[in-house]
């Protein structure tokens, strides 16, 4: 029977495809057979005929594990050294985010902190060796992140600066000492507040002092330093604005008030430090804030400064790699200029040998030890000689955000001791024992 023309034309390509498929399968089967033979041959060659020679190779693995254990042990030792610096006494726990600032009360019994988690915490420090510390937590308004804090009226009130989307505000909280009222713990209340104290600008730091100079009434004076060129002075108890000054520079770095409440100094974009006097009237109130002197001598911007406890000298640290001690106890009204008493070279260098910049500096209550920070490194210097008393590299696992000396001694295991507190990005607040100056 003759096939239809369309079926005949179709059968040829179909038959060709079928034959091609069979041939491809044959080639693939032969290829797989040869690969299995090669694998079997390689496996046979790699397997020693005598199991005894394999013993050394089986014994070579443990040294590798031992090496790993040794490395881990060394690493843990390094961590232990970092965590247990000889001056590192204790760590305050409970913060869930970066700690942005801290300060001691005038009696040193309370340490207040502010944290990026939106909370203010006040810790009771009776002995730095305690296993735990009682604390009071105050949650700020939603969307407000506290960035600075100072005590007012001894240990009972705190003034806090909070950063929000539209600017910074200032709040005063009372009864933060946590003393019970009629058998129940008192709840802190906002005594006063000011919104957008520097417009939309951020506040770099808060500084305060008890006004004791001249006719001052002993009230707490607070200054807020904006990130641009404005600094405002406030009454810590009432919240009254006492004065405002302009540094007339592109950017502020920080500001500080002298311990007696007389002077206000600012470190800013240029190498010069401007100093104002807070003038008190006969009725003990603040009359005005006037510029009285300028510290000239650094060759580059001043990154940090602090006053000596006697309020008559200022210490400054600059990007030019030096620390200067200035005498400001001069008759400026007779055009007598402040004088440089000492110049020290910053002794801290990075891995490349470049001089580090100090981010924070604070003087001990006796005026003998200068605590400074750069990144995560904490260092103690002798004020008299500028020499290094001790250094804690990686004192925190992140940058150090603030430091504060306890104004009075605190027991450490029952022994009255000079204590420094540090805050960091690592959610920790640490307590440190002051090094001995006589160790030099």
UniProtKB/TrEMBL annotation:
Biased composition (Low complexity): 55-65
Annotated keywords: Membrane, Repeat, Transmembrane, Transmembrane helix, WD repeat
The organism of origin for this protein: Rhynchospora tenuis
Keyword Repeat attributed: yes
Name assigned to this protein: Transducin beta-like protein 2
PANTHER family, per the entry: OS03G0858400 PROTEIN
Lineage of the organism: Eukaryota, Viridiplantae, Streptophyta, Embryophyta, Tracheophyta
Compositional bias ranges of the Basic residues kind: 66-84
Transmembrane listed as a keyword: yes
Family annotation (InterPro entries): WD40/YVTN_repeat-like_dom_sf, WD40_PAC1, WD40_repeat_CS, WD40_repeat_dom_sf, WD40_rpt
Entry's transmembrane regions: 6-28
WD repeats: 92-133, 295-329, 393-432
SUPFAM superfamilies, sorted: WD40 repeat-like
Residue stretches in coiled coil: none
Region feature (Disordered): 43-84
């Amino acid at each position: 029977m003759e096939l239809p023309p369309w079926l005949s034309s179709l059968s040829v390509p179909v038959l060709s495809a079928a034959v091609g498929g069979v041939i491809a399968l044959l080639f693939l089967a032969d290829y797989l057979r040869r690969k299995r033979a090669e694998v079997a041959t390689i496996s046979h060659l790699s397997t020693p005929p005598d199991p005894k020679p394999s013993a050394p190779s089986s014994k070579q693995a443990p040294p590798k594990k031992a090496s790993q254990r040794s490395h881990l042990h060394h690493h843990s030792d390094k961590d232990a050294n970092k965590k247990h610096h000889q001056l590192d006494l204790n760590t305050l726990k409970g913060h869930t985010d970066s700690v942005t600032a801290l300060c001691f009360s005038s009696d040193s019994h309370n340490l207040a902190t502010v944290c990026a988690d939106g909370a203010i915490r006040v810790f009771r420090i009776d002995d730095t060796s305690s296993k735990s510390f009682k604390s009071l937590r105050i949650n700020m308004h939603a969307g407000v992140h506290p960035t600075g804090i100072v005590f007012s009226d001894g240990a009972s009130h705190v003034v806090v600066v909070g950063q929000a989307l539209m600017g910074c505000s200032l709040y005063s909280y009372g009864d933060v000492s946590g003393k019970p009222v009629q058998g129940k713990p008192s709840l802190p209340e906002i005594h006063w507040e000011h919104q957008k104290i520097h417009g939309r600008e951020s506040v770099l730091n808060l500084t305060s002092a008890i006004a004791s100079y001249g006719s001052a009434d002993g009230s707490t004076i607070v200054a807020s330093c904006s990130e641009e060129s404005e600094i405002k002075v406030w009454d810590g108890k009432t919240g009254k604005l006492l004065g405002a000054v302009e540094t007339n520079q592109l950017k502020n770095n920080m500001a500080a008030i002298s311990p007696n409440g007389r002077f206000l100094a600012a470190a800013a974009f240029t190498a010069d430090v401007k100093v104002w006097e807070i003038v008190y009237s006969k009725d003990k109130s603040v009359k005005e804030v006037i510029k009285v002197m300028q510290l000239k001598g650094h060759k580059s911007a001043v990154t940090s400064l602090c006053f000596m406890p006697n309020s008559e000298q200022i210490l400054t640290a600059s990007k030019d790699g030096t620390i200067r001690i200035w005498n400001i106890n001069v008759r400026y009204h007779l055009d007598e200029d402040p004088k440089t008493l000492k110049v020290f070279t910053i002794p801290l260098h990075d891995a490349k040998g470049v001089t580090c910049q100090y981010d924070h500096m604070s003087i001990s209550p006796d005026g003998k030890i200068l605590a400074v920070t750069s990144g995560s490194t904490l260092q103690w210097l002798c004020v008299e000689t500028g020499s290094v008393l001790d250094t804690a590299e990686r004192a925190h696992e992140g940058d150090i955000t603030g430091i504060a000396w306890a104004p009075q001694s605190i027991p450490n295991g029952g022994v009255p001791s000079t204590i420094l507190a540090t805050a960091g990005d690592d959610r920790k607040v640490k307590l440190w024992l002051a090094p001995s100056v006589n160790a030099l």
